[in-house]
Write a structure and sequence with these properties.
Elements: H1 2-19, E1 35-43, E2 47-53, E3 56-61, E4 64-69, E5 73-79, E6 89-95, E7 98-103, E8 107-112, E9 120-126, H2 127-130, E10 133-140, E11 143-149, E12 151-154, E13 160-161, E14 167-173, E15 176-181, E16 184-187, E17 193-196, E18 199-202, E19 208-213, E20 218-223, E21 229-235, E22 239-245, E23 248-253, E24 256-263, E25 266-273, E26 278-283, E27 288-293, E28 296-301, E29 312-318, E30 325-328, E31 332-337, E32 340-345, E33 351-353, E34 366-369, E35 372-376, E36 392-396, E37 399-403, E38 411-417, E39 420-425, E40 428-434, E41 456-463, E42 468-473, E43 479-484, E44 488-496
Antiparallel strand pairs: 1-44, 2-3, 3-4, 4-5, 6-7, 7-8, 8-9, 10-11, 11-12, 12-13, 14-15, 15-16, 16-17, 18-19, 19-20, 20-21, 22-23, 23-24, 24-25, 26-27, 27-28, 28-29, 30-31, 31-32, 32-33, 34-35, 35-36, 36-37, 38-39, 39-40, 40-41, 42-43, 43-44
Amino acid sequence: MTRRLVRAVLPVLLLVAGCLDNTYVKEDRTDRRPRVLAITDQEGGAHDCVLIHDRLWYVGQASRLLVLEGRGALVKSVEAGPIGKTGAITDLVIHRGDLVGVVSGDAVVRWDIANPRAPVLIDRIDAKTLGMQPWSLSIVGSDLFISGRGGVLRASDGRLFLKGEATGGVVASVQGLAAVSGRQVRLLEDGKFVGAASALDPGPAGVFGFALSGSKGSTVGVMGPDMRERMAEVFSASIVRLRVTGNRLWVLAEDGLATWSIADGGMSDPVYAKVKGARDVAALSDNLYAMVGSFGRAVYRLHDDRDGSGDAFTDVKREPGRLDQSVFDGRRIVAGSIEGYWLYPIRGKATLSDKTIDVTQLPENKATLAWGTATIEVGDGKPETPDEARAVRIDGPAGKGRWSPGANGWVNCLAAIDGQLWVGHWRGITVLRQVPSLVTEEDDDGKPIAPKQVELEVVDELRIPGSVTWLHPLRTGGGAAWVSRFGGMGVAEFVPEGETPKKSPTD
């Protein structure tokens, strides 16, 4: 039986063997393309500003510009710059038919809105070129003014006023153009003090809404064109945004809002509402307002009308915008704050969750690598020198080292991933590694002397809005799930250069 089977199978095997290609050459199929750090997934982010134009909403959500219509239906989402290299959009204006925006301290950008539903990014001027860090925009007459850290820049001729100062909005007073600088209102031409305010916004009939912030609250009211107070109230909260829409003055704070009607230089018809995380407001009609913030976006009905009761939010679209706490089980993140908690399956869709997090959970401030132990510096504890968490200290066999995110920024968390140090800080993520040192010195016995200083180099980095406060290493290696306080959450990984990310934040 066995011999019969062999005789039957042998011709088949010989036939197959004759058909086999014996020219196989072993190949090295290792992917040797350079790898870069990229955001491969992103969910959420705070809505920082809103502008209503041509019956459309333009909203800055983290580094994205959202175009909405009607009661907040999404039409399009575009980026203000390269993904992972762009900060949050913090202010928007229309100037000479274009949409102009500020990318938080980084740049001023401009979109062509010839097709209002599909903005096209046509210009970007960075902070270095501007000579200051931009934070807000003002239109006075036909001129565009850019305010921020370093002064006020007039776009038409590039002239810089109040150089070196941290400035706010520009207005036209009877004494000339003026801007907020700290708690003062000062003339652009000579810096002369003409009033007291921390924020200004032009209102009807030549008056201005103003806020003067203090340590325990703020004074909010109306100023005349002479920069003198006409009427004011005390608002017992730290103000996020002062805004005048039509004939209404709005004050938005972390846990509530207040609004008054402006008439004859005074304030009336006050409305107070509890809302967590509101950041900006714009008028949709005389009674409906687009409201955005770290909670997401919504329509706010001010007074009763035929569609419903006043002081009510409708068409609410929640988003993970404020994320103070985070935990990770290797597959999912639960992150949130007093505004709500979100469940985020890695590379999935974030959804509201009824889970909460123990407030004792803290980000990692220490990471151990083969070449050293990294810790976040605690500072000297002196209130006059606030240097806590301003740098990372390295202690290892090769000696000591130090790295800082620069610009007096702060470090939030550390993670050791694939032999490299990942640092979450105020501007995003930086990945560091030790620079191999060439030992050239020897002691008296001819033994090499180890260097006393660890040299660090930046492998790559990402710009993520809102300050990255948590880094959770992925089980598969190569990256981390990140959580930003106001920039949402997502995944950062090293991918071959030129490879399309698995999921774009605008998907």
